Amino acid sequence: MLATRTKHGDRHTMTTQMKSWWIRTEGNAMRLDLRDSPVPQAKAGELRIRVHAASLNRGEFVAGLGLHAAGAPARPAGFEAAGEVDQVGPGVTGFNVGDRVMGRCDASFAQWACMNVGEALPVPAALSWEQAASTSLVLGTVHDILLAQGRLQAGEWVLVAGVSSGVGVACLQVAKALGARVIGTSGSQDKLERLKPLGLDVGVATRGEGLAKAVLEATGGRGADLAVNNVGGSMFAEIVQALAFQGRMATVGYVDGVVKAQIDILALHKKRLTLYGVSNKLRSVEQRIEATRHFARDLMPLLADGSIAPLIDQVFGFGQLEAAKSYMEGGAHLGKIVLRVSEQ
Question: What architecture (CATH level 2) is domain 5-135+310-340?
Answer without folding.
Answer: Alpha-Beta Complex (3.90)
